[in-house]
Amino acid sequence: MTVAEVRKRYLDFFAQRGHAIIPSAPIVPENDPTTLFTSSGMQPLVPYLLGQPHPEGTRLADAQTSFRAEDIEEVGDNRHTTFFEMLGNWSLGDYGKKEEIPWLYEFLTRELLFPPEKLWVTCFEGDESLGISRDNESAEIWQSLGIPQERIRFYPARKNWWSRSGIPANMPTGEIGGPDTEVFYDFGTSHDPAFGETCHQNCDCGRFVEIGNAVFITYKKTIDGSFEKLAQQNVDFGGGLERLAFAAIANPDIFMIDVFDEARHVLETKSGQSYENAIATRSFRIILDHIRAAAFFIASGIRPSNTEQGYILRRLIRRSIREADKLGITEPVLAAVADGFGKAYEDAYPFVLASAAAIKDELEKEEAQFRKTLTQGLREFERMGQQIDAFILFTTYGFPVELTVEIAAERGISIDLRAVEQKMAEHQARSRASAAQKFAGGLADHAEQTIRYHTAHHLLLKALQMVLGPEVHQRGSNITSERLRIDFSYGQKMTDEQKTEVEKIVNEKIRESIPVLRTDMPKEEAEKLGAEHEFGATYPDTVSVYSVGPLDNAFSIEYCGGPHVANTSELGEGGKKFRIMKEEASSSGVRRIKAVLE
Ligand code: ATP
Ligand code: MG
């Protein structure tokens, strides 16, 4: 079954059940400067989920082109792409669980012909402290359809609750949310114990892949922190089209679906390597994903630049060029790869093929430019040894900072992003002062958000020590404008309760609006204060220390060069909340957390 067939069957199925089929919103959201890209089918529909009447009625369905920059590092596994289509159907105060779950089941088993035994599901386990009961109703509906109890598993809010602010505790008064039920396809591949002792729906080893998620928007948070049922209860279903399509061909590799065929073939021919060759697979996947996204971006009017969406596009293209280089492809190749996508989407998104000339032109320009400096830049990189200057590599050789960080990580070198940020900020200030053209530093445009993440990093480390014990210390870190990552010493997987507690502490400190202060002092004094320092680092006699709160009453004190926000309240601007996205093993005795402010 092809991607086009899955999309058509889905939209027809819901049209037959009274849904208006609405067009995909643009990949760059209209009238919303707070986000760069549309990242789900639900996103453009939020006003209607909040109660505004939709002109097309109370039953809607669509296929929404979506982009998730935060998944960029996941690309290379068997199921993540940055760009994908999300199939969605909505009930705006119309039908509920009793319709949604049986329809979903019918669509999967009768339209896509999934063998029922391949389907596993999850439901919300409830939270007594909030007065929200376990979602037995959804589980019973699944059972009545033939999904046995062993394939239904209950998870807490972290996995099976949706609200714009995450778990119930993080929701502000008036916010809406509710439990969800997720459907997983079992590819039946053997379990990889690196991901945990046993395999289950939410295990990341690749056997189970989430193909869809139905949210039952049922509750509103009241002023006293309790939850009341909404007058208009909504259903919001989102399922990855590509995920459904690779399940439909029962091939546990998302890049084997038909829309990638021609582009994959181009890469095989030009590199002389087969996709199945283990070393090449990851590079192939990155190029296939990134150039498909790039083709849609350029066709949508985005151009490579050093700011906003244009910077993300440049990052995708330049990262692809490096991967092509790794594959031994020395001639320009991206335009030919993109060509394959114009054809693959000729019927569903004719604007991509119609923009073929612009796509070719932009990719060729970018490839010619970056190929000129790539080899020299890599040579310069090697010459720098352990002292990698990402600022020079960006300004002189055009290496997006994230690319430098990635190359460094491959060689076990970590980069002081804070120092890069500072140089970028200074450079930006200088260019402003000379009234020269607007500074072209992608990072600088994201600098504010990166600085917030840096401060959140300090709050997080302290909160981890409070919850897990004082023996927890930092073992590594990596901060971008999209998220923060910390590696820390701790021997076990954190429980959901511990994660929730850590989030709570960090969000409390954000709410308390605590000043963040820098003090320079002799090293011995910092030691006496018990300032947190980096493992294995050596420091000069005078050190600078950042404290959250005044030194004599600080929440956290760390040796650190900055930069930081002036006050923790800046982390919560625009109603943002701190949230742990992932907690996993990094190496023996070291755990890794990825977290966001959103
Ligand atoms: P996962 O945990 O697998 O990364 P998710 O929980 O982030 O998925 P949702 O936010 O629930 O996904 O999005 C709804 C659906 O969109 C998912 O069920 C999945 O089918 C699809 N989807 C989400 N992220 C991706 C991605 N990076 N690539 C392809 N499909 C995706
Ligand atoms: Mg999900």
UniProtKB/TrEMBL annotation:
One Pfam family, short name: tRNA-synt_2c
GO molecular function, one term: aminoacyl-tRNA deacylase activity
UniProt enzyme class: ligase
SUPFAM superfamilies per record: Class II aaRS and biotin synthetases, Putative anticodon-binding domain of alanyl-tRNA synthetase (AlaRS), ThrRS/AlaRS common domain
GO-annotated cellular components: cytoplasm
Similarity remark: Belongs to the class-II aminoacyl-tRNA synthetase family.
Protein name: alanine--tRNA ligase
Organism: Candidatus Kaiserbacteria bacterium CG10_big_fil_rev_8_21_14_0_10_56_12
